[in-house]
Amino acid sequence: MTVMNECHASRRRPGRRRLISTAAVTATTLLGLTALTACSSMTAADGKNAGNGKNGKLDVVASFYPLEYLAQEIGGDHVSVSDLTEPGQEPHDLEVSAKQRTDIEKADVALYLKNLQPSVDEAISQSGAKTKIDAASLTSMEKHGDEVGGHAPEHDHTHGEHEGDDPHIWQDPVRFAEVAKGVGKAFEKADPGHAAAYEKNTAALVKKLGDLDTEYREGLRNTKSKVFITTHAAFGYLAERYGLTEEAINGLDPESEPSAARVKDLQKLAKADGVTTVFYETLVSDKTAKTLANDAHLRTDVLDPIEGITAKSKGRDYIQVMESNLKALRKALGAK
Predict the structure, then answer these.
(1) Fewer CB atoms inside 10 Å of the end CB: C or N, the chain?
(2) How many angstroms separate the CA atoms of 101 and 307, rounded?
(3) Is 226 helix (H, G, I), strand (E, B) or coil?
């Protein structure tokens, strides 16, 4: 079964300020799962050969940590998972090595998220990996501004010139659960002998993500402020899901530099909206965040986009770091 780029499910692209419709997400997911089936080219004989990878397990190559987490949770003991992005490495900057290209070529499954890592997109599209799963095809995508933020009705900002599909879907537990369901179905088709285990593990993961969504929904329901400032525009989906407004110093590219006008606007916004904290992340320099915070007399704190787990991460896995992020947001927003 191969999910090729040309077989992507239809994606809903509403305006960024529209509240997310559960029905729309469900419908999109059904389309994604239909695409998984319709675009499948694996024969029954191929299925019998699945799982002949490392130690007789399904050999999965994941492009970066959130997808590695999904693969491990869903695959359990029946998969061998490797990550193209090393811990501590900024995933946007990854250049696929010759060895990694060989690993992708030999893999039973290549799991990636289109438009996050161009080098990975190119390597996987050219590879002969038996099963290719684009996580972006398994849920709806939104367009978020590249430099100018604003994800809720309170701020009528315009988009930046380099607007595009925001790839940070794992920041929304609901969307991430939809991706998990699609990955689970793909694993079942790639390795039918362990389909029951993949189905069971997927259901358990979807429940954990549902519980996480409930924690966020309840934890952020009653706050003094709804606006938060980050260095990197990685939290647009989270902001939409829970009725918040993300204002990013940089755009979707964490290494981009903000304009002087943008910094001045953020200083005014922080005062007007009662912002207390400028968030930065562990994998990128905190210099810009601290400069803005000092000039505007604000605090700084970590809001982790969970693009990788390191010794600096406030948690051992995706769920734990998401819970740490929730605590940081509750404190910054004045949760009651």
Answers:
(1) C
(2) 21
(3) coil
Other Cβ atoms less than 10 A from the Cβ of 263: the count is 15
Q: Is residue 232 within 8 Å of residue 248, measured between CB atoms?
A: yes
Burial code (b: 16+ CB inside 10 Å, e: under 16) for 58-95 equals: bbbbbbbbbbbbbbbbbbeebbbbebbbeeebbbbebe
Q: How does DSSP classify residue 55?
A: G
pLDDT digits (tens, 9 = 90+) for 230-289: 988 899 999 999 999 999 887 655 556 677 788 888 889 888 889 999 999 877 777 888
| Ordered strands of the 227-230 beta sheet | 245-248, 227-230, 277-280, 299-302
Cβ neighbours of 19 (radius 10 Å)? 10
Q: Taking Cα atoms as reference points, which of 336, 332, 219, 221 lies closest to residue 275?
A: 332
In 3D space, the residue among 143, 150, 140 whose CA is nearest the CA of residue 178 turns out to be 140
Q: Give the pTM.
A: 0.79
Distances from the Cα of 71 to the Cαs of 49, 51, 231, 241, in angstroms? 19, 14, 29, 24
- Are 173 and 212 in contact, with CB atoms under 8 Å apart? yes
Query: In the sheet where 58-62 sits, what is the strand order?
Result: 79-83, 58-62, 109-112, 131-134
> CA-CA distance, 310 to 301, in Å (whole number)?
17
**Measured distance between the N- and C-terminal CA atoms of the chain, rounded to whole angstroms:** 49
Question: What residue has token string 């002087």?
Answer: 260
User: CA-to-CA distance for 170 and 150, rounded, in angstroms?
Assistant: 19
